[in-house]
Amino acid sequence: MSLKLLFIGDIVGRPGREAIREWVPSLRREYEPDFVIANAENAAAGSGLTAALAQDLLNYGLDGLTLGNHIWGQKGFDAVIGGLKRVCRPANLPKRCPGQPFLILENKGFTLGVATLMGAKGMDLCGDCPFQAADALIDLLKPQVDVLVFEIHAEYTSEKMALGWYLDGRIGALVGTHTHVPTADTRLLPKKTAYQTDLGMTGPHDSVLGRQVQPVVDRFLDRMPRLLPVAQENVQLWGCLITLDPATGLALGIERIARGVA
Q: Class of 3-259 per CATH?
């Protein structure tokens, strides 16, 4: 028996949340995934998450939410994240940070472990070495779950790819987030770990990574600080569907999934 995991790329602002509400039910009907996970670190006005929005996204059909470097983007979220049982922070942040460092989800009598690793290079919020953190998570979680899947939330493609090769054959999948641009390297690595450097984003694609175009262009031209509002147009959903073998803990297949793409 195989398990299917739909992993959705970074949800950006209200347009991204509306895309989840519109398309996740139909994706569930079409692909019948056993688990649906999404990165929600940009879900609140493009930076961070709130408890109310987390509950909305779960109500729309998501089973779990991951976070990244914008985890503390909304005031007071540190005080409530501990009560959000289906939301996890990056696992390699300092141990004293609030929130769960991983998720363990159950369906059909099988268990799935999910954890996010923050990249160590080029990030405004950095954690411990993701490679060493991955080793520790594998030692901790593998005895507890049938399949283990990691997300690498990182800026550098080289860091993501190196981690993929490092973990090949040790976990079911490694998928990347953060850069908001879907990559065309969706594949099974030789030892059957599913991999994609970046899933892309779920939000407005007539934008610069989800933000209105002109303020971003202006900031590059004059280097002046300014607000970067979330864009609204050409909303798309991007992610991947991973088929996993609970008997081995490895992957049987992976394919890119998109909605709203002309």
A: alpha beta
Which of the residues are catalytic?
70
Which helix (H) or strand (E) is 177 found in, with range? strand 173-177
* Count, residues in the chain: 262
C-alpha span between 202 and 236 (Å, rounded): 6
Cβ pair 171, 138 in contact under 8 A = yes
Instruction: Provide the pLDDT confidence category of residue 170 given band limits of 50, 70 and 90.
Output: very high
What residue ranges do the domains of the chain occupy? 3-259
Question: Which residues are within 8 A (CB) of 26 and not within 5 positions of it... i.e. 6 or more apart?
Answer: none
Amino acid at the residue 36 = V
Burial class for 19, CB neighbours closer than 10 Å (0-12, 13-18, 19+): buried
pTM value surpassing 0.90: yes
The mean per-residue pLDDT over the stretch 97-101 comes to 98
Tell me the HSE value of 210 on the side-chain side, using a 13 A CA sphere.
28
Only one residue has tokens 């939301």, namely: 87
Q: What is the pLDDT of residues 23-61, one digit of tens each?
A: 999 999 999 999 999 999 999 999 999 999 999 999 999
CA distance 110 to 91: 22
pLDDT digits (tens, 9 = 90+) for 244-261: 999 999 999 999 999 999
How much is the CA Rg of the chain, to the nearest whole Å? 17
Residue spans of alpha helices (H) in 41-122: 51-59, 77-80
Mean pLDDT of 145-155: 98
Closest CA to 44 of 68, 67, 12: 12
